[in-house]
Amino acid sequence: MQPLAAADDKALVDPFGRRITYVRLSVTDRCDLRCRYCMAKTMRFLPKSDILTLAEIARLADILVDRGVTRIRLTGGEPLVRRGIADLVSSLGARIGRGLDELTLTTNGTQLERHAEVLFRAGVRRINVSLDSRREDRFRHITRGGDVGRVMAGIDAAAAAGLRIKVNMVGLKGLNEDEIGDMLAWCAGRGFDLTLIETMPLGEVEEDRTRHYLPLDSVRARLGGHFTLIPTLVRTGGPARYFDVGGTSIRLGLITPLTGNFCGGCNRIRVAATGTVYGCLGHDQKVELRDLLRSGGRAAVDEALDRLLAGKPLGHDFRIDAPGPAVARHMSVTGG
Ligand code: SAM
Q1: Which element (helix H / strand E) includes 58?
Q2: What's the chain's average pLDDT?
């Protein structure tokens, strides 16, 4: 076994003493949906040469695990539209139990039906599925053309394959706020946790986000009239506060970057599909790893990661009423 001091030496620790054990790794900026709050309608995607190859992603993951990262979440864009994703998941899955504790994935579910079993076989045990509405017409409107039936088929396949599912729903005033109670009841019936998310001001989306911004403290109060929400002390180092939902086996999470800052215990960094690594979702502070992975060698990658950690911001400062987005890049670029 490696002596603890050596592992501590390599650990990714920021000046606030926060240790990075969790990485969100975007495998593509592309997506087959165009959610209104996330992307512009005519989103221009990056040329292939700008994107890390699967081998480069796997190598970076190895380095991160060596530096103390124990959880990796694959994201995007839509991770399941990346060609070769099954091979990448299998190769990362082989690290589980060898430094890596958990490999997870966040998906919109449209391609899940054909990938669910592969994910499970590779060692993935839980996934997040984004689902802002279960109603066909609404889903089509919010995603600008998506087919909710495919997502439902994906969810069924994932559950049948043995994957635990958490549903992520962005609360949108006037678009899905009246459906949140139904969604919670449906999740409870299926044994899925549900996390509600406030819209964050990331990237230009051609729409005025303030129109659909829904503060989740009011939602929580309303849900409290129909469900018993018992606050828990569970924290994942991430942004959500959790509630047990009385009489069910599920948990409700609230991600409230605007009404409740969530950064103090941050344990994560985000790798974009280009190999740019961000210390914070709401800041531009970053290092570029792509060229270093291509020709710089391990020491150069380590040095860049140390630089990133040295400058990791304490937290973000999202304001829905600010004149423009907090950062210019979209969630799909940073890796949501
Ligand atoms: N395509 C995958 C999915 O749909 O889960 C992964 C990437 S997506 C960017 C990750 C999550 O970010 C989704 O749940 C999406 O709803 C959320 N998201 C995107 N833009 C957002 C924004 N501006 N504010 C809040 N959540 C956002």
Answers
A1: helix 54-66
A2: 90
Q: Ligand 1 centre and the CA of 336: distance in Å?
A: 5
Bridge partners of residue 104, in order along the sequence: 73
Q: Annotate 285-294 with b (16+ C-beta within 10 A) or e (fewer).
A: ebbebbebbe
Q: Give the three-state DSSP class for 22.
A: strand
* Helix, strand or coil, per DSSP, at residue 190: helix
241, 245, 251, 257 alpha-carbon torsion, rounded to 10°: -30
Rounded to 10 deg, the angle between the 298-310 and 54-66 helix axes is 60
pLDDT digits (tens, 9 = 90+) for 82-122: 999 999 999 999 999 999 999 999 999 999 999 999 999 99
CA distance 48 to 50: 5
Question: Does residue 255 contact residue 198 with C-beta atoms inside 8 Å?
Answer: yes
Where is 194: in which H helix or E strand?
A: strand 193-197
Question: 88: Cβ–Cβ under 8 A, 6 or more apart, which residues?
Answer: 27, 54, 57, 58, 74, 82
Ligand 1 — pocket residues by CB below 6 A?
31, 35, 37-38, 75-76, 78, 106-108, 130, 168, 170, 197, 199-200, 202, 331-332, 336
SS3 call for 71: strand
Q: Where are the alpha helices (DSSP H) in 122-259?
A: 136-143, 148-161, 180-190, 209-212, 216-223
- Nearest 5°: the CA angle 295, 299, 303 is 105
154 CB burial (10 A radius; 0-12, 13-18, 19+): buried
Q: Choose the residue to mutate in 39, 331, 334 for probing ligand 1, maximizing ligand atoms within 8 Å of C-beta.
A: 331
Residue of 30, 31, 108 to mutate, ligand 1, most atoms within 8 A of C-beta: 108
pTM comes to: 0.92
Q: Residue 1 burial by CB count (10 A; 0-12/13-18/19+): exposed, middle or buried?
A: exposed
Reduced to 3 states (helix: H, G, I; strand: E, B; else coil), residue 89 is: helix
